[in-house]
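Pasting as-is:
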Amino acid sequence: MQYSGVKRAAVVVNPTKISELDQFRQDLTSAMTSQGWAEPLWLETTPEETGAVQARSAAEAGVDLVIAAGGDGTVTACASGVAGSQVPLAILPTGTGNVLALNLGIPLDFHQAVMIGLTGEDMQIDLGTANGRPFVVMAGLGIDASLLQSTSEQAKRRFGYLAYVVATLRHLRDRPIKVAIEADGGPVRRFRATGVITGNVGWLRGGLPLLPQASPDDDLLDLVVLTAHDVVSWLILVAHVLARRDAPKIFRATFRDLTIRTAEDQLWELDGEVIGTTRNLVIAVCDDKVRLRVPTLTESDVSPADAQKPGAGTADVTASGAA
């Protein structure tokens, strides 16, 4: 959408993730106009319309850029809205996890993230579906869904990512579940698993390389099956994950189509949100790609682990008011 040669963006914002929305809007508009962009369209999400409809309508209207301002859930919704179009999506991370942003080297600093959105490079990333619902980060069942279920919004607002760490400690003794997994029509593999996680990217907050070989643009998704039953076995498992070593209690694979079956109903999650319970989780790679704005090569020479070291992954909320 060109206005006398001036580019214009649409900002899809989750107002629940920003403490001072008016100040945030003012700061973002100022940052964009200072770079020669027109004042952006402003589209707020709601519990019913979480970003997909807003992003799709903005892309169809011909904007030059869609900016997702929120957490991973807002980013996922916007990604599904622009998938298959030529309109790039930029991430302005204001959520608790911000896992996709950290994996792609997009900093939590407000001004740096805005500049990457306006001047960065475009990358065609994969979009996955889990039981028909889109995701760009991770989906799975077991301990990841359980800890998300037991982490309240109040705890996330008060403690940030540490709320997830505390929740994890409560589930270290969870009983493994029986799962049967079939990837790309191959043989069925059976496990007693604590967690079954699939991902488009591999690094968690805190520099944990859960799926170290995952690449968001390789037309594949990655799978890890983890098994542990007490604190000691979890410590051993985490040590192997941190060292990126194979271990008897870690199974990895890549796939385009995956079916996970369980003997009993299990909680499952998608990009940090508990969706419900299921005994049958079907995961696949979509044909449509998402054109995502990422740092240039010189800007992105920092690994996800380095990006999360003290000082590198702290949000600049003074100017933006973002929570």
